[in-house]
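Weekly modeling sync, notes
Attendees: S.R. (lead), two postdocs, one rotation student

Agenda item 3: backlog of single-chain predictions. S.R. asked that every request posted to the team notebook include the full sequence so nobody has to chase files. The rotation student volunteered to paste the first one in as an example of the format we agreed on. Action items at the bottom.

Example entry:
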Amino acid sequence: MKTMLFQKAAPSLLLLFLSVSILRAQYAPKAIIKSYPVEVAYDKTTVLVFPFEVKSLDRGNPVVMAQKDGHAGNVLKLKAAAKGFAPTSLHVITSGGRLYHFKVSYRDRPSPLTIDMAAQLDNERFAVALKSIGLNQRELANYAALIVNKKPRRRLGRKARSGKVSARVRTASCHGQTLFFTIDLKNKGAVDFLQPGIRCWKRDGGGLKRTARRNTELVPVHASWKAEEGVKGDASNRLVLALPQFSLRGNENLVIDIREQNGGRLLRLRLKAAHLEKAEPIIQP
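Predicted structure, as returned to the notebook:
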């Protein structure tokens, strides 16, 4: 009798087991690497520019021809070996340890023909950072205008210098989930320091014996200059920089890099947890 009951129940138990297994096998949204659409043509070249060197790639269909540039290892050139093929996949791994997934389709006139993946990633991180602080661009600009001329009680951190150009953090302020920094720059030379790029991250300070450091990039949600962007020769300027709120622990530092475009001068500012604790709330008039 027990055997007959088990035989009747077995299909139901098997179905239940399979249902549970399927539920467990579902991937979380964060675990799925998003794909980017890219179009290729038979007589045109599509170019992908990555932030790091291309180390390996896998094509879903050999009809997609992919070649790494001989002079710039972070540039990948794509072309179609035949017309009208069905959409396929392309996976690219770079030396930065990131895997990129592309959905490749054929088109006689592909658009766009050149894609900067570094700019794409920066834009995605910016959108996430902006959403997390709950302020829009206009509100950020208004708060920056309130503090651009704020008198400092004491300047923060050490001065950064490259050639005759120097920078120092003037003030630290806060509003909600956003930290604002005003930075004074001075150029005592005749060569302009123009169109600088800005990158920020948290760095594990470690020590002299430490061989590896852990970096976490922080994406600025706002950057504005008191005068035109950069610093002209024999002049000074002030930058207001906003970052989503964060904290520093132990030996961690906030590193702010200000590098001139098409030049070798780099201003690297470092702040510690004690500096962030001096941030004052922004009071609207």
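Discussion: group reviewed the output briefly. Confidence is low (pLDDT under 50) at residues 207-212.
Action items: rotation student to repeat for the remaining queue; S.R. to check formatting next week.
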